[in-house]
Amino acid sequence: MDKTKIFYDGIRELSPNKEYFVYLSAGFSNSQPIPQLLEGFEPIFICGELPGKVPDNFMYLAGEILGRRKRGRDLSYEEFYQAIVNSERIQKLFQSLVREQGHLDIKTFRNHPSFASQFEDPRMRCFGLTPEQAETYNSKVNQYRLFNGQLSLPRYVATTAEEAGSHFETVASSKGVFVNQDVGGGGHRSHLSNSKEELEVYLATLDPTTKLILAESLDLAFTPSIDIIIANPDEVIAYGIMDQIFDKKNPLGCRGNVYPSSVPEDLMEEVVKQALVAGRVLAEQGVKGYVSLDFNIDSKERVLFGEINARYAGSSAERMLLMEQTRPERYPTILDLERMAIFDGTFNGFKLWEEPQGIFVLRRELYAQCSGRINHPQILIPDETDLFQRKQGSFVGMVEDGSEVKKGEALGKFVAVAESAKERDRQVQELEGIVDSLVI
After folding, report:
1. Do 116 and 19 share a domain, yes or no?
2. What is the CA radius of gyration of the chain?
3. Per the domain annotation, does 137 fall within a domain?
4. Sign of CA dihedral 260, 266, 270, 273
5. Residue 132 lies in a domain
6. Distance between CA atoms of 54 and 383, rounded to whole angstroms?
7. Partners of 361 in the beta sheet?
8. Could you read off the pLDDT of 384-398 as tens digits, one per residue?
9. pTM
10. Which among 31, 100, 142, 240 is least buried, having the fewest CB atoms inside 10 angstroms?
């Protein structure tokens, strides 16, 4: 690894001929190619993980996480952003960029209220949802209230852990109820209860004041996700429907995605239609930028809203790289369109182009199955952009070889890219055969 590329200490000399923006993500693998897709700007990538292969202008946050040995997505958002706000070397870098450029655009994988103070200086511009918007629209209770009467919702009630048991019969299906805590993702704050007794046992583990969405449990046929970019109520683009892959040990936790989706065409049209409605509703609330949406399709072919991720999704990088395969010459990238949406409030006449056909992708997030040491000396860790160009599968964004990890820690991901489903699945099988040997 070329460690000269990393901003370990102080501030590297910045080129006066380039305009820089900052991209922040606690984890590396889900964000790796995104900052490079903004044309005409040089990204500075600040991250809580040190991967095996780093891009140019990469700053590792280790020194700022005092007294902790956490890494990447194992950091809370509050820890990550507070470390940036409190870091003398990072704040010096930001001020240097502001002096040279007159302003600095800061893009986050997900914003958070703990980062709000960074934007008190009007020269620091939020490239995406503000910390306040992120907090508001990552609330499941706020989401369901906002979309009630606008989107197709499952039978539900917004309640608290103290009161939820009394609503079981109101919302339960033959499969029971689905409990989703107000804030949280990855299935870690969700629960399925087949009976009122099971529900009461789960609720007893929560603080009685915990806000919840209690909804009917569905007989699921498909669980698609889709990304949207919001410029204004009349300009919303939606693209990249992917199926979600769920962890066998945690059937509520999404651990990857597949493209193209297996959702039938007529139901795909309904997913897109509802996604565009969601974008319009959010735009009317003043939201501009990137949001990811999850939907549920049950055995009765009902397309029902699942949740908003008021941020990039884990699969947003793959969606962007897919769209790069068919982007017309001299046309803005997806990230360029997002920038127009946020700072211009319009896509400036540009329309979404056709999605690629004949390309098959699967991404899977990897977590340590045991505590130990990372062991991948023979694995080439490429830039994910190369995989899409070469139609080849590999591990991406892996933590540094030799690192000590604990069971459950994020390791990176693998991505399979091919021109046929058969070849994609062959790549997946080959990569899965290596996964168990990654930690020794």
Report:
1. yes
2. 22
3. no
4. positive
5. no
6. 9
7. 259, 417
8. 999 999 999 999 888
9. 0.92
10. 100
